[in-house]
Amino acid sequence: MSKPIKIKRGLNIPLKGSAEKVLVRIDKAETYGVKPTDFPGLVPKLNVMVGDKVKAGSPLFHDKYRPEVVFSSPVSGQVVDIRRGERRVILEVVVKADSGELAYEDFEPASPETLTRDQVVEKLLKAGVWPYIKQRPFGIIANPTDSPKSIFISCFDTSPLAPDLDFAVQGEEQAFQAGIDALRMLTPGKVHFGLNADFPPAKAFANAKGVESHYFTGPHPAGNVGVQIHHIDPINKGEVVWVLNPLDVIIIGRLFLKGIYDATKVIALAGSEVLNPRYFKLISGACIESIIKNNINTQSQVRFISGNVLTGTLVDKLGYLGFYDNMVTVIPEGNKYEFFGWIAPGINKHSASRAFLSKLIPGKRFILNTNMHGGHRAMVVTGQYEKVLPMDIYPMHLIKSILANDIDKMEQLGIYEVVEEDMALCEYVCPSKTEVQDILRKGIETMIKELS
Amino acid sequence: MLHSTFDAFETFLFVPNTVTTKGSHIRDSLDLKRTMSIVIIALMPAMLFGMWNVGYQHALSIDAGWSFFETFWYGFLKVLPLIVVSYGVGLFIEFAFAQPRGHEVNEGFLVSGLLIPLIMPVGVPLWMLAIAVAFAVIIGKEVFGGTGYNVFNPALLARAFLFFAYPSHMSGDKVWIAGLTQGQGVVDGFSGATPLAKAAAYQIEQMPSVYDMFMGFIPGSVGETSTLAILIGAAILIVTGIGSWKIMVSVFGGGLAAGLLFNAFAVNPYMEISAWQHLIMGGFAFGAVFMATDPVSASQTEKGKWIYGFLVGFLALLVRVLNPAYPEGMMLAILLMNAFAPLIDYYVVEANIRRRMNRAKKVANV
User: Fold this and answer.
1) How does DSSP classify residue B287?
2) How many A/B residue pairs have CB atoms within 8 Å?
3) Quick one: pLDDT band at residue A280, thresholds 50, 70, 90?
4) Which of B129, B125, B123, B128 is nearest to B180 (CA)?
5) Residue B90, pLDDT above cutoff 90
6) Which residues of chain B make contact with A341, given a CB cutoff of 8 A?
7) First-to-last CA distance in chain A?
8) Mind listing the pLDDT tens digit for each residue in A410-435?
9) Which residues in chain A are closer than 8 Å to B102, comparing Cβ atoms?
10) Residue B313 three-state SS
11) Do the Cβ atoms of B28 and A429 come closer than 8 Å?
């Protein structure tokens, strides 16, 4: 093992309700949804209409500007609904799953080594698994015509209540390696692994062939692939790096092993309002009702989040698991007033600062709700963001350059190296309650427009 | 119509029920209200001691042997009007500006409003204080857009305004002791001169003892005299992480460095005063702990904070010792460095940009 890279700055938010390592197999969910909103910047064009029959792997919609990038149905069944929002933006394409065995589109199994790069790309595109590959900068779906400098896969997740990926990939070693083999065809550079130095990695990670492993130790966001890239081989202007999640590598691997789009994965259900936080094996895009049924504290008003509490998406209890998400978090809503809350000693309040008594109780786990804990203000306090962003970047100056719409400055201050998840902690700690992630995405959109 | 005003009072009583709608679903419990409250708590020792000291100095001037409570009560009655006027005028202006802008009222003035009385001589007339506060809030803050956008520390601007607009009222021997400017009797041999004034006049042997200066039994602005009380405040700020320890340490470091330099090249008695004594005289400690650390007007980068703090301390002594026109240099040093803080940050950030550029170039050349 090479010497681990120590991440010093960051913050672990100790929440109550982490998932117990018990894998629950559940029946198929009734409906599955694919959400174009999971893909920032995407303009979707529908391939199906309500009532159409689809197989697992049949395209539901595609990218208007890159028609070869398609998004497939995770199950076979019937398209029952296409939900639209304001200005007829497509929010969800809902498929009612067949009751019996699933029918799969056949993409023919193949060993990646026997194919050319173009054939691999074509296969990934056709089956609708291409969108699992994201690019940095910008955190958008990779461009099939690019040749990335390298591919990075973070094999552990440090975000609050995050699923243990070592646990989630158990038994999938073969598919995982097949996925890695396919990815190796895509880059002239290396496939890099970010591994947790504090625990022995799962077999799938440890025995993976043809990759370069890097070990990290430290608080969140040490597990963020953006942070790992920054410490291994930072992204410069004009460079493109591709990133994937290990669970999605498995889905890619299955495409080559079995020739089908099988989006089965193991996800965690966690959070203080979950009665039995556990792991579930399900098909991506499942309606979360299938896992939260009879498993939620009904005493309080709760919020369902597809993803983690820092970067996840708000969904309702009949909502769908996001395309890239590996967990569902359930926390209490915070829509209550608190009398003189700003001066209370705060034994149950979590803060990155030391301004609350809770700091005196080591190892305490918190139940945090969705309250803002204060009103929006101009930026006053300095030095807070830097403490939770372990990169050689001045986060506050970057955010200010975006607010000022100064494109040169954004580029100079390192906007290519960060996406929302990397600066989510900045947003968490901000005493002025600045919407850091939203501002950063706007800056990224500006840069994409500028460079196109 | 009075939404900002209503909102200010409502959020004072209750943390509002707003929930997150985008981005992170959970947020840190710390907000600006709590941040500012902690600074106010940190100011309490200096304020309470200041009240007592006002009474104590007055008692000395009339040679009265007051009890502790008489002493404190006298000072309390002298200082309270200053605080009331400062908050009254300042908050009125803050509300008046927040209302048409539709902003929530920012908590920033809660701290400035208490800092201002603490850096005033107790003898300052209330109308003068009111003008100074209005000047500081309007010209120092609101014209830039409110708290968070100001260039200079508003509290120090109030002080500087009075210092330059009414110099006769802001210096000399009488203004530091309550009652003297109203012509109340002074016992023989009593001088209201501050240690700084004595040092500047080379009356080193007449300066109070180190113990008195550290504890704060000396004439001076209301809250600045007791280094001990200020250090208690500093401890609160550092333990809670609200105040930047880097700035505090580097200000003291800069002062010490300048003091040692003077010692080495001493040509007059003032320059011979041992370097560390400077740190407990005048407003040095108060400025280092409560003024230089104002996050808005200080350097915003961590490296910049070291440079900024050091220069504040260094310049403060430079002005204090080498310029006979200004007995105290802390105010001017901090205001000057407020103006230069963006420049320091510019170079720190520019270095970061250059690192990124060089990295890209190196890759391109391989």
Assistant:
1) I
2) 206
3) very high
4) B123
5) yes
6) 14-15
7) 42
8) 999 999 999 999 999 999 999 999 99
9) none
10) helix
11) yes
Range of the domain at B272: 3-11+32-365
Give the nearest chain B residue to A376 (CA atoms): B104
Asked, for residue B154, whether it belongs to a domain, the answer is yes
**Chain A residues within 8 A of B240 when measuring between CB atoms:** 353-355
Please work out, in degrees rounded to the nearest 5, the angle formed at the alpha carbon of residue B224 by the alpha carbons of B221 and B225. Answer: 90
A179-230 tens-digit pLDDT: 999 999 999 999 999 999 998 999 999 999 999 999 999 999 999 999 999 9
- Is position B17 within any domain? no
What total number of domains does chain B contain?
A: 1
Q: Where are the domains of chain A?
A: 5-258, 384-451
Which residue's structure tokens are 């790309």? A121
> Rounded CA gap, A136 and A123, in Å?
22
| Nearest-angstrom CA–CA distance, A322 and A334 | 23
Question: A134-136 and A140-141 as β-strands: parallel, antiparallel, unpaired?
Answer: antiparallel
For A299-365, strand residue ranges (E) read 302-306, 313-315, 327-332, 338-339
Cis peptide, bond prior to residue A221, ω within 30 of zero: yes
> What ranges in chain B are assigned the alpha helix state H?
3-13, 32-62, 68-101, 108-118, 126-138, 154-165, 167-170, 195-200, 210-215, 227-240, 245-264, 269-272, 275-278, 284-286, 302-322, 330-365
Task: Write the CB contacts of A345 (distance below 8 Å, at least 6 apart in sequence).
Answer: A356, A357
Does the predicted interface ipTM exceed a cut of 0.85?
Answer: yes
User: What tokens does A324 get?
Assistant: 């890239």
pLDDT at residue number B183: 59
Task: Please give the model's pTM, rounded to 2 decimal places.
Answer: 0.92
Give the pLDDT confidence score for residue A277 in this predicted structure. Answer: 94
Determine contact: B241 vs chain A, CB below 8 A.
yes
